[in-house]
Design goal:
The protein contains 13 helices and 15 strands. It is α+β, with helices and mostly antiparallel strands and about 425 residues long.
Length: about 425
Amino acid sequence: MLLLACVTLSAQAEEALSYRRNSLAMVLVYHPEDEFGYEIFKAFDSLPIPDKYDDHNINGWRIIDNSTIWGVQRRDSGYYKATYGHQLTASELQANAKFTEKLLNENQMAKKIIAKWFGLEGTSVEDATFNTELIQTRGQYNANDIDVAVALQTTRGLATLSDAGEELLNNTFVLVNDITYITAEQEAEAAKLAMGVLGGILDGLTGGSSGRELANAAGKIADSFTGFKVKTHSYLYQLEWNDSVAAVFYQFHYTGTPDPAKVQAFLDDNTTYRLKYVAHEYEFDKKSVLKGQYERTELVRTICARSMDKNIVALAKQYEDFKVKTPVFQVLSNERGKIEGYAAKIGMKEGITEGSKFQVVQCIQDPETGKTTYKYVATVKAKKGCIWDNRYNAVLEKADGATLPYTTFVKISGGEILPGMLLIEGKYRKVTE
């Protein structure tokens, strides 16, 4: 049996693993009217942003309280809600999505996102300033290249600012998760009701009591079943950042030194900065019940985490700009030097299956213009039996693959793959051959 050796990223290259992720803020529609509503909120609030996205959560904007919402439905308060026995219709989904877009924009969520990107700092309008420190860090730009005052004076500087806008700001998303649930008790009650009706009909036809006995037995079986399943509707919104929006921001609002007029103009602008609704995803797995392994709070946290992860995976496949990028971590070779595969730190949490195929691309920044391009290198697929189960609490459950340190991919076509190159699932429109 041949032993595998690894060509691993150097310490310097590992530092470069802070590649340009998409940025994500996550919001929960909180249902205080539900028995498990507060526990879902606590579970949501304790979960970090998925590590393949940069955390762009906004303080004070983590929940939308369903009990305070008016205007979605004609008669009742709150969102159209997925409950036991009721699936949301297409029109209800659209109403929820558009209302949320309106709510986010009325509350200037896009402006809050931009303020975080540009480090709006200061205790008052008089001393407040913007900076580009976060953009430098996440985009790996040289401080001089991204200095706005300097950049606006040069062609390269303008190109670098444009690149930062396209690669970072335009790829900033808000994911609003509306989580409702089904408990075993709800299913048990429905099962007992159904069996009771059926038993009554049977007794009526036979004149006996076997139908009632059957119903009682079914009810006891249903009552003994414990579990909790969630219905998660996720609505995805993207920051609108283009040349015209950037022109307004840099000309009329951005200032690196105290300028009360510009800062106040930014705060007063209620039309330039917007979020747009781009996609919806729904996740409900009838087989996702976990029982006997968790106490109630951890049960809710685990199921909510996995449900939201599934929706994020589906949205990334559905919406081009939301695709996940991740670097090749190691090239795996046997003792004879033959390459056996490529390691990347993604797994079942990101939806990896034996059928998953990824483009391997090289990220290139033009030294003259500062613009970023992605060049196709190869195509790989996940190796059977070597998929990391990195889902929430997978290790606790002793799931297959939970102790693996990464997922192994094998090349199916293309050229030489090196550590640090990026994996992108499926086809990516920005990639050039």
